[in-house]
Write a structure and sequence with these properties.
It is found in: Membrane. Keywords: Disulfide bond, Membrane, Transmembrane, Transmembrane helix. The protein is mainly beta. The protein has 4 domains: 136 residues, Immunoglobulin-like (Sandwich), CATH 2.60.40; 92 residues, Immunoglobulins (Immunoglobulin-like), CATH 2.60.40; 84 residues, Sandwich (Immunoglobulin-like); 112 residues, Immunoglobulin-like (Sandwich). It is built from no helices and 35 strands. Strand 34 and strand 35 form a beta hairpin.
């Protein structure tokens, strides 16, 4: 007989086939059996809707024959299939069955058919023997994963979720990520004897976590390999703001310098607003989106600029304090400048390489030329190493002199004292050599209405 033992419940006979010995049958076979073994498959796997074969075989060892040994075996009755969960779907195979191999098959198997199936032989006077096959029902789960959008905070929350629905047996879920969190997994009964497994990944979300890679990996017996779901964490946070562009060298007269307000945030920042701590925006400033452009640096930009950025999560800001310096444009290699009351002292460091091998070549001479905004060029200072410095008639005569004095050709800088508004313009330092030719550098002197404090 075959007996079905469900996981939860009592044993049920599902198929029977009876035989007995009749001494009136002279052709009946008598066996003296000193031992036998019921052979079955320990585990059989199947999917819903399939037909499954549960094999059973009786292996006997015969050691002799005799007329008085009542062991076995003339088929006498038809197979019997009592009421059971598999009635109408179970049958002996082959049919009619034989005692050597009374296997059964179950058609249209269901998830609820899972359990132990016992093939049992009953004999007289030897007793019973049995073999047990475990029918494992498999169901391929429906796997999915999703990201949970969260706000940056200080407490652990669910940031990702993974689910394996209606599988049999239960799926195994794991997480792969560089984020510092933990996964928790729970299982619950699904439909038709299946299992649904849900895993949640929790962590304390920070702005730095936004966009980090995270993958849910689902392993199941019905899959040839684990199924992976790559995702990216979604953490919303208030803007992070930085002002760039100020190099601490915004000298008076410098033009078209720009401050840029750089901001990151999730969601993307909705607005960028420029302000000053004083409340007044200088006239020389132009604002376009996240850029603040100073058309010409003057005393008015000696203030603190503030960039304020908003998104749905919050508002953030950054600020930078500017200092306008009295400055002069670069001449040859560098310019050193300072302001003192109404006097702008210009000190030029000039490097001049004279490429000549002719010992009789004339030494170079230097000439300073003033070019006003409107008017002709005027020589204001000249020096030749064989002669004394000369200061021709000019608007700065009496206020201009070489510095140091006496001058040297390595650094023939000039100093103009008691500068006036009318002194603004270009000042050209020109070296004249033979036979190399001339070389010059130009500095623009910018005059302010009053000295910077």
């Amino acid at each position: 007989m075959w007996i079905y033992e469900p996981k939860d419940g009592e044993n049920i006979i599902i198929a029977m086939f009876c035989s007995f010995f009749d001494s009136n049958f002279p052709n009946s076979l008598f066996l003296v059996a000193t031992g036998w073994q019921v052979e079955v498959e320990p585990v059989v796997e199947s999917y819903p809707g399939q037909t499954v074969n549960l094999r059973c075989h009786m292996a006997l060892r015969a050691e002799g024959r005799g007329k008085d040994q009542h062991r076995c075996v003339s088929p006498k009755f038809d197979p019997n299939y009592p009421d059971s969960p598999v009635k109408g779907r179970v049958s002996f195979s082959p049919s009619p069955p034989n005692l050597d191999s009374p296997s059964i098959q179950i058609s249209d198997v269901r998830m609820t058919d899972e359990g132990k199936y016992i093939c049992e032989y009953a004999t007289y006077p030897i007793g019973n023997d049995q073999g047990v096959t475990y029918l494992v029902m498999l169901a391929k789960p429906q796997n999915s994963a999703s990201i949970v959008t969260v706000d940056a905070g200080t407490k652990p929350v669910v940031v990702a979720r993974c689910e394996s629905v209606d599988g049999r047996p239960a799926a195994q879920i794991s997480w792969v990520t560089t984020a510092n969190g933990n996964g928790t997994t729970v299982s619950k009964p699904g439909v038709d004897n299946t299992v649904t497994v849900t895993s949640e990944y929790r962590k304390v979300p920070t702005a730095a976590d936004n966009g980090k890679d995270i993958s849910c990996v689902v392993a199941h017996r019905t899959q040839t390999k684990p199924e992976s779901f790559p995702m990216k964490l979604a953490v919303q946070y208030a803007p992070q703001v930085t002002i760039v562009g100020y190099d601490n060298n915004w000298y008076v007269g410098r033009t078209n310098v720009v401050l840029t307000c750089q901001a990151t945030g999730n969601p993307v920042p909705l607005s960028v607003q420029w302000k000053t701590m004083s409340g007044e925006m200088p006239d020389t400033v132009q604002i376009r989106n996240n850029e603040l452009k100073v058309l010409k640096v003057d005393e008015a930009v000696n203030t603190t600029f503030v960039c304020e950025v908003k998104n749905r999560i919050g508002t953030s800001r950054d600020q930078v304090t500017l200092t306008a310096k009295c400055g002069c444009l670069k001449m040859f290699s560098s310019v050193v400048y300072q302001c003192h009351n109404e006097c702008c002292l210009l000190l030029f460091s000039v490097t001049l390489n004279i490429l000549t091998t002719d010992p009789v070549s004339a030494p170079p001479q230097v000439v300073w030329i003033y070019e006003p905004k409107e008017g002709k060029r005027i020589n204001i200072a000249m020096f030749h190493p064989k002669f004394e410095p000369i200061y021709p008639d000019s608007p700065v005569k009496g206020r201009v002199n070489f510095s140091p004095s006496p001058p040297n050709l390595a650094s023939p800088s000039i100093q103009i004292s008691d500068v006036k508004m009318t002194d603004e313009g270009k000042y050209i330092c020109e070296f004249a050599t033979y036979p190399v030719g001339n070389e010059q550098g130009v500095t623009s002197l910018v005059m302010l209405e009053r000295a910077l404090k």
